[in-house]
Amino acid sequence: MTPPALHSRFKLVILSGLLAAVSLVTACKRQPAAAGPPPTPEVAVVTVRQERVLLTTELPGRTAPYLIADIRPQVNGLILKRLFVEGSDVKKGQELYQIDPAPFQAALENAQAALGRAEANLPAIQSRVKRYQQALADKAVSQQDYDDAAAALKQAEAEVQYYKAMVETARINLNYAKVASPISGRIGVSSVTDGAIVTAYQPVALATVQQLDPIYVDVPQSATDLLRLQQRLKAGQLKRDSALGSKVRLILPDGSTYAHEGTLQFQDVSVDPTTGSVILRMVFPNPDGVLLPGMFVRGVVLEGVSEQAILVPQQAVARDPKGNPFVLLVNAEGKVEQRPLGLERAIDDKWLVSSGLQPGDRVIVEGMQRARAGATVKVLAASEPGQATAGVAPAAAPASTPNSK
Length: 405
Fold this sequence. Notes:
Layout: H1 3-30, E1 42-48, E2 51-71, E3 77-82, E4 89-90, E5 95-99, H2 102-137, H3 143-176, E6 178-180, E7 185-187, E8 197-198, E9 207-222, H4 223-235, E10 247-251, E11 262-267, E12 277-284, E13 296-313, E14 318-319, E15 325-330, E16 336-340, E17 342-347, E18 350-355, E19 362-366, E20 378-381, E21 392-394
Parallel strand pairs: 1-20
Antiparallel strand pairs: 1-19, 1-21, 2-9, 2-13, 3-5, 3-8, 4-7, 5-6, 7-9, 9-12, 10-11, 10-13, 11-12, 13-18, 14-15, 15-16, 15-19, 17-18
């Protein structure tokens, strides 16, 4: 091998060695640094406390008119005129239909004439009885003649009373020719027109008048819920609020709250065997006519007051694979603990807790996905002030721990 070729090979070996050294250094730089301890998870908690809570229940119901009257004729006859506008408000005693009064006027005059005839015959018979009574004392007439005269007087007096009743009946029928409204309210559609023949007390009503101010709301309540409520009141778990009394609220079909409060009037005394429920009747003012008969609404009824209620935010409650509710809380050692709960109902954005929590427990509301049972966590106050209302208070941040910066 010539010296130049040997020199070229020598340079190639040196260059390969340098490239290998550079690759080794680069690989060393890319190796990860030794892993340190993971950071302590941070969670936000609220401290559970007891407070006074009004417990209400929403019950679906339907509105019903306060008063309702089906207008039916009380005499037979021909409708001469309808005297109202359909859908308008009418007053008690207002004339609605005019039935042809001619036959009833004639019957009244006939009865009056018969009464006048009977009354005209009465004085002569009375005078005869008086004369016969005097003649009987003088033995001028027989006892039989006097008895006949006395019987004729009683018959004449009875006829007078009979025809007086006939006159009164004819006068009543004549008044019935004017069909009037028995109540004040709003009248609906008329089932007859002018010229229609109607009969007394016919099955089909001429029209219907409904009083809508005030208005009833009838809601069914489960007999089971009613018994449970009575037991809780008896046990002292709930108390009646004397200030609110029997006041109730109403939620309209569009979800808005009705502007006027109502009153719980009474609770039915029997249970419907088909539904197992008891009807609660409420009365609401309806000055603007917002509520109409047959409207589906929801009544908000006050059950009572719980003086030592515990509420937790709904976001703090999770469920296991079986659907049982639980919360994660931070114990006195700063470690996460899983606690099963008993939930009674939802109140706004919180759960009413019946079992599982005590005042002073710190419930995790944020950072649950980073918390594991038995792990140590860093406790922060709740980030939203609204979480501290209605039964829960934000926990104060504890003093710095060795793991905190």
